[in-house]
UniProtKB/TrEMBL annotation:
Protein name, as recorded: histidine kinase
Domain of life, per lineage: Bacteria
Gene3D superfamilies recorded: 1.20.5.1930, Histidine kinase-like ATPase, C-terminal domain (3.30.565.10)
Occurrences of domain Histidine kinase/HSP90-like ATPase (ranges): 315-406
A molecular function (GO) term: ATP binding
GO cellular component term, pick one: membrane
Organism per entry: Parvibacter caecicola
Coiled-coil annotated spans: 176-204
Keywords, comma-separated and alphabetical: ATP-binding, Coiled coil, Kinase, Membrane, Nucleotide-binding, Phosphoprotein, Transferase, Transmembrane, Transmembrane helix, Two-component regulatory system
Amino acid sequence: MEDALFPHIEMTALDWLADAAIALAAFAFGCLQLYLAVNLLIPDEAMRRFLGIEALVPTANAIAAVAVTTLPLVLRRRLPWPCLVFVLAAWAFGQTASQDISLSIVGPLVALFTVAYCRTRPEAIAATCLAALFVLIVPTAMRPSYLVQLTLIQNLALLAAAALAGQALQLNRAYAAEAEQRALAAERNRETEAQRRVEEERVRIAREVHDITAHSLSAVSIQAAVAERLVKTDPAAAEAAIHEVRATAKDALGEMRAMVGVLRSGNDGPETAPTAGSDRLGDLLAYLEGAGIQATLDDSRYQRGQVPVFIDVALFGIAREACTNIVRHARATRASITLACQQAAGQQQAVLVVQDNGSAPKQLKIETSGHGLKGMEERVRLLHGTLQTGIGKDGGFVVKATVPLESAASSAPSAEPAPQEV
């Protein structure tokens, strides 16, 4: 624990110079008070005689006494307690030794202020009591007069003011330091929040890349297999399949380019626009039919103009993931996509249903632990909707996403961050 009498304080050359200047200023003030205090306080000579006071010229001993009570202030911050005790003792001794001259109390005041400013509140109280004790003892050794009593009251008031000023400045310094710490903590919180948002964006991009690659590569693989099978027996059909492969790959490259544009630009320009919406559901039908699956689309009850864009994009992403799962896992021959807006429980909702007649149990087992269903669930959850998956009436697999339009639209900013896991 730091010693109360000899605390370790690092002092720079500028600190020492400042304390030396304060000590010299206190010495000059004390000398000036020796010459002027009595004459200015009681200018009338008859009154001074009545009070028993003589206007004496300060001697060299008096000036030396002022020096002893002020020059040690050079050490006031390095040794606050020893400095206070020394100047108090020197002031009391000099005052009692020169009863006809009133020594300035400026040295003890500065020393007391330093203790109150640099040390704890209990130490400040103890230092004030000690200084007051010295001030009270001195008049008992002096020739009694009205001026002595007046000086006593004045000195006690000055000691209290010095101690309070030191404590007030210490509180102000502590408040400033606390405010700085709060500012630093807020800055660290902002950095943490920025890192969190970067991580969320990274996960969102990973999910989008998964959606793009899973859908597009599945289509490319299927069409390439068709072309390979028909290249000798039906060159025209093989050429058509290769053309489809090229178109699908081109679309996928365009979407990936838009994704990279998001990373490069960091703005809200055209490159950050959603890759696709429900207006491209026809591409999903072509994708399913290209895989040999008879597909139907019913969006006659869907009011695209009244659905927020981010909801429309999310619904298309869910439909695309569901269709990718059908092609990859369901072994289905038929599939249907239904997209509609409906009123339920006094609330407008967008409902997407994707179902097939494939081998639902195997599909459910595979996808429950994969990326697809988790990605769908996160999309719907962020839109305050619900996702239902399970076995349909014809034994196939059903994906049903229901998104409330009002609540999702009111929380559009919060719907943008990505899920924590994909």
